[in-house]
């Protein structure tokens, strides 16, 4: 079908009934919330959200209303929400928190959403969680805020005071991961790794630790993998050393250029990286990144040409899903016949890799239709519908088929 939804956080509604779930305070300012927490001897849980954030909406509509989530948070916390952005639709209560929201962003370094801040009963920040999750997982993350041995802020103070303490570093790494503090996480994991010999490090039990810590370029784990690729490959079933390092280096270089609003020259990036990291081959990672970059910049001829180059060299390693996603990106956004033709070839290739997959047939049918081959598009879409299971959203496929039969656009 149209797109693989890579994130499950696209939930439309923000408001919910609070009969069973988490009860958030209304009509209180920050000082009053702290007073209530002190009186009830509870921690304070603050959901820092924005109106445009998909994961924020998911937590609000799906996780917080659940009875077991409410039972945990209502018993342990005074709960509050702070809207961190400003919109024309904001009511008076939201507006009354504007100044406080700005202070929270500055004082507590709220830069990603959702961020959940947890304070003790005196109003001292002790823990943070970045990102949502399922009910049980989120409760488990919040549970760590109740124990000084796993509180993020408490551990951070201990870690900064004694940065070579392996026991503290292990706990710090876990807390920093939940807080999405990649720099502290990598630093703490580096301390843990430094306490081990090379042979002790390169075991299957440490693969995740190495990968997590190596996500920071030039960290200890990054250099361990770079300098010992054969040892890493021997213990890793997920990814090869060169592939991991190359994707990391190319991705960071491209993102740096994008953030600086500079043009991305892939050949120049590859050359620069080859000089600094001569043992890492970035060619494949660069070819893989280029169509994604061109899709981001809406340069669809560039996407077409770069993806064709990638297919020509590494076609056997490309998944059917990757082919389908690129084909759909062209279908949705480009009316150039040459691009659409290329996308239809990618779509056919996805079906060669995974025959009779309804989602891929739907993409192929839409491309045929946009290319003007209406009869074949209808037959292909009917085949896709015939292969659907009870768990598939049949109505979307049927709606597309009806548009095709009526001669209406199936794209926006």
From TrEMBL:
Source domain of life: Bacteria
Pfam families: Thioredoxin_2
Residues spanning the signal sequence: 1-17
CDD domains recorded: TRX_family
Keyword field contains Cytoplasm: no
Domain Thioredoxin per the UniProt entry, residue ranges: 7-147
GO biological process: response to stress
SUPFAM superfamilies with a match to the protein in the record: Thioredoxin-like, TPR-like
Signal recorded as keyword: yes
InterPro entries reported for this sequence: Thioredoxin-like_fold, Thioredoxin-like_sf, Thioredoxin_CS, Thioredoxin_domain, TPR-like_helical_dom_sf
Keyword terms of this UniProt record: Redox-active center, Signal
Protein's name in the database: Thioredoxin-related protein
Species assigned in the record: Sphingobacterium detergens
